[in-house]
Each structure stands twice: as C-alpha cells, then as structure tokens.
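User: what does the whole thing look like in 3D?
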Amino acid sequence: MSDTDKPAEPDNGWRQEYWRRNLRLMITLLGIWFLVSFVCGILLVEQLNEIVIAGFPLGFWFAQQGSIYVFVVLILVYALRMDKLDEEFGVDERDEQGNRL
Amino acid sequence: MSSIQLWTLIFIFLSFAVYIGIAWRSRVKETAGFYVAGQGIPTVANGAAVAADWMSAASFISMAGLIAFLGYDGAIYLMGWTGGYVLLALLLAPYLRKWGKFTVPEFVGDRYSELVRTIAAGAAILISFTYVVGQMRGGGIVFSRFLNMPVAGGVAVAAAIIFTYAVLGGMKGITWTQVAQYTVLIVAYLIPAFAIAQTITGFPIPQVSFGSILAELNALSIEFGLSSYTEPFTERPRIDVFMVAMSLMIGTAGLPHVIIRFYTTKSVRGARYSAFWALFFIALLYTTAPAVGAFAKFNILEGVGGTEVTELPGWIDSWEATGLVSVAEGVETVESISNDPDEGADLTVDNDILVLANPEIAGLPAPVVGLVAAGGMAAAMSTAAGLLLVISSSASHDFYFRRIKKGHASESEKLLVGRLAMAGAVLIAVLGGINPPAFVAQVVAFAFGLGAASFFPTIVLGIFWKRCNAVGAAVGMSVGLAFTALYMIWSLYLSPGSTLLDISPEGIGTIGALVNFVVTIVVSKATTPPPAELMELIEDIRYPAKQRRVTPSEAAQRAKREGGDP
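Assistant: Here's the predicted 3D structure for the full assembly of 667 residues, as structure tokens:
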C-alpha cells in the first residue's frame, strides 16, 4: 500500500486494530459457515449419515436443517460482537441524545 | 361456488384491502422515501420485508414438492438460498449501508467508473426483469387454480394492486406492505405444516418430527422404484451439489433486489440486525419446507401407492381437474409415482401440488385452503414489488439522471420520473406475465449464476481491497459474466447435456465468480491504483460512525496525563 509514502498519522493505530479484529471475527464465522454446510452437509455426508439422531441421519440433517440454524446464529453472533467492537473503538453510531441507532 | 372458492375469495380480498390501506398510509412525498424509505425502517420490520421480498411464489408453492422428489439433493436449494445471507451480512450489507446511496449500480459507479455503473445497471434490470415475469405469472396461476379465473385476468389484478402501492409509496409503501405479506405467507405455510406433522407423527413441530418417518420413507421410496430419500447424490454428483450450493449462495448475496434492502435501515448496525432478522424469518419457512416435502411424499406413497384407482383418496380427485395430478390411462393399481410427466408413471404429481393440497391432505377445513391461496399471492406479489422497484430505480436513477440529465434534476422531477419508471415496469411485467417469453423460465434458474459471476466479486473487492480499480472491475465483471453465460449456452443449447467435470450450468457461477476475482485482481495490479481520495472514502466505510468518539479508556488516560481526576 502507498500508506508508507505519507507521513504517519498519529491516531491511526486504532484503525488497523479495529479492522484486524473485524477481519478475524469475519474469518472465524465464515470458517464455521463453510464447515456446517459444505463439509458436514456435502463433503462428509456419507460418513455422518452413519450416525442417526431422532431418526435423522446426521449428514442429511446438516444439509436440510442444521446448516440453516447455524447460519442464523452466525449472523446474530456477528451483529452482537460488532456492537461491542464498535463501542470499544468509539465508532458506534449515536443520535444527538447519545442513544445507539 | 364451492366453499373453498368462497374462502379463497374472502382471504384474498381481505389481504388486498390491507395492502392498499398500508399503501395509503405510507405514501411518500420525497425521493429518499421513494427509493430508500427515508432510511427509517425498524430492523425487525426490514427483516420481515427482506424475507417476503426474497421468498417468491416458487419458494412458497414449489419448493417443498421439489425437495420431496429430490430427497437429500434438495438441500442445494435449502442451503443455497439461506447461506448467502451469511455472506451478505458479513461482507456486504454494513459497508454498502455506510456508503449510503440508493442503488447497487450507484455504489459501483462511485467506487469504480461510469462504465461499470452502466454495466451494473443493465445487469440489474435484466436479472430483475427475468425474475419479475415469473412472479407475475405465479400470481396469475394462483388466481386461476383457486378461482377458475383466466391466468391473464389474475396477472392483471395482481399488477393493479402492486401498481397502486408501489407508485404511491415507493420503497416505503413496498416495505410496509411486505411486512404484512410476510405475516400472511408464513401463517399460511405453518398452519398446514403443523397440522400435517401432528396427524402423521403425533408431534406438531415439523422440523423435529419428520425425523421419525425418514426410515419408513426410505423403505417406501425404494419399494416404488424411487431412490432412497436420505441417500445423497442420487440426482447430482457430489461436485455438482457443491458447486450449485455455492453458486446459489454467492448469487443470493449479489442479487440487486436483496442488496438494495439494506440501504433502507437507520444505521450500519441496523443493516447487520436486518440481515439477522431476514434470515431468521426466511429460516422459519426454509426449515419447514423439507419437513413438508417429506411428510407429503410419505402420505402419497403410503396412501396412494399400491391402491386401486377407484379407491384413491379424495384430494387426488379434487386436484385432478387442475391438471396437477394425473393418473395414467388404463392403470388399475398405482405402482409407480413421478413428478415428471414424460416418465409415464402410473401417477404423475406436479411439484406445486404438495403445498397447495396439503391442507386437504391433512383434513383441514376450507378456510385454511383459502389462507394458503392468499399466502401464495402474498409471496408472488411481495417479490414482484421489490423487483419492480429495482427496475424503476435503476432506470430512473442510474440511467436517466446520471447519464442523460448528468445529475441536474429537481426533487419533484426525480419523484415523477421514479413513478413513471415504476408504472412502465409494471406494464412490461404484466405483458411478460401474460405472454412469458420462452427464454424466461430457463433464464430465471440461471440468474443466480450470472449474479454470482458479476456483482458479488466486484462489490466484495470494491469494499475489501482498496487497490482494486475501475479497469480491473470492468474487465473482471465482463469476463466473469461472459465465461458463465457461454458455458450455460454451450451446455444447454450448443451441445445439450455436456458438462465439464460434471459441473451443471446451474453450478458454473461458482467458477465464473472465481474467474471474476482472479481477472479483477490481475488487471488491477497491472494498471494504476485508484486516486488517494477514493482510497480514503473506501477506508471510511469500514467504520460505522461518521466521527469517532473518544472512548472511556482513552478519556481516562488523557485525564491522567493532564493530572485531573480519572
């Protein structure tokens, strides 16, 4: 990047740190996204189908039910964690009264 | 008139009255209201609106039946059409909301160049148009099946209602109507599903209870010459299941009528929570659909298979008139069942019948059947309205104002042109819905692949890679689109049935997206970087707040340095 050409901006350390932590969270969650759908639901489906819970072969369950539940939880975790991260770095959005938008 | 028709009329009339009432209350006077609902939609409501926008007539009526006949392999649709929201929530929605414009072409236009804006606006109109025609048709078909009305009349009635609230209220009217439509469609979907789960297994939650019939369903399927229900890769090889699921996911995240919804929230934070609520509401239907599919198939195989034709259950008789169920001539005992009329099975069942006939199969009273019809209408109309908004905003905003008026237009002129474009879009959609061009049905299935290969990589790189420039994006998008479209044409028309590495035309969008990523990166690297001001703008969308607040810990440190109280 051409950042090195410019004189260093003194208060920009927080930007890199914020972004690094955002990316780390994102990559972890996308890893789980790939794991439940593509790995459990498609690549390892036959092996997991050997295990049957409440009538569901496990691989089949991941493909038709489990992956969807996990997707919903992943987005919720992302939104909650980002709330905290934004607040910690002071980049959360607030109205004139200081309430979160 | 039968009691089912009467109840259908009552429910459809009531739901339409609600939609019109909402439209009147939310009519708008300024352009921000028309295009992005004044960015004042609460997140839960926005989530419900996204869900209604997303779930089309096909999701509501056909998906359960499709899964019933695909078995495990139906998971490509279940995962493909939900997993994309994770990508959308983590990679796109918050950043596009911070960028804060009205349309997707506007983002790529500001981020890259006018050329990229024009390509994107054209692609958005094309994708939305092929999609909307199917929705108008779906609405018309619901009318014709339940009320014995001609399809053309049904399309015209549905269009007149959409026209009223879309032209009056723009995005604001559409969003609030979609909240009502989501409510109608999910209630209409869940009531019969719970009832049928209760009847068959004695436990009313379909997501949990369909496990208990799977073993028996597998045995029955094999008995009737079908593949075992939970057995993977019976319809598509593993690599294709992988590619199609991935293509549908990244296509979902790239579809303009979905992305545009995240501009309507109050804040970046609101965009994140909207994505959560949207997927939550979608998941209610998408986790129920495979259960409905399994139950319905179980019912048919158990109730119909091996039965003499004279003793078939009553619902087959009542739906035979619609042509959705047919018993082959000269058959005395039903021994084979299929959803494909060309297979010549003893009993042919259309995918659409399962959800429509479900209330009857479960022995529910006529009002519930009427509710299902209203639900199907709600699903078709809500999706059509969202798509029409994309068409009209791309045409008026991205083409007319940007290219022709060069950005000089008064507020009232913008609003008038937006409304005229909407009226024009509705008119074209009606004509298309009554006489669908032959290519439409096929193109809809491939819109996702095209979206995956074009929008998604261009937007993601635009957000996450500052060095990405206009030349790279234009070349990458064109090559990705061309590669995907050519493969589809080759595999469908030039050499029908041929594939490379078993990847079907529905799954090629995954490769197309990879091609787009690689080409964009290589070309961007080889050409000049974007200007510094633009890089700073891209940096800025990473942080939700307009201005950074001093955090409590920093304030404490500063206070310490200055010697005051902590």
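In plain terms: The mean pLDDT of chain B is 82. DSSP finds 22 helices and three strands in chain B.
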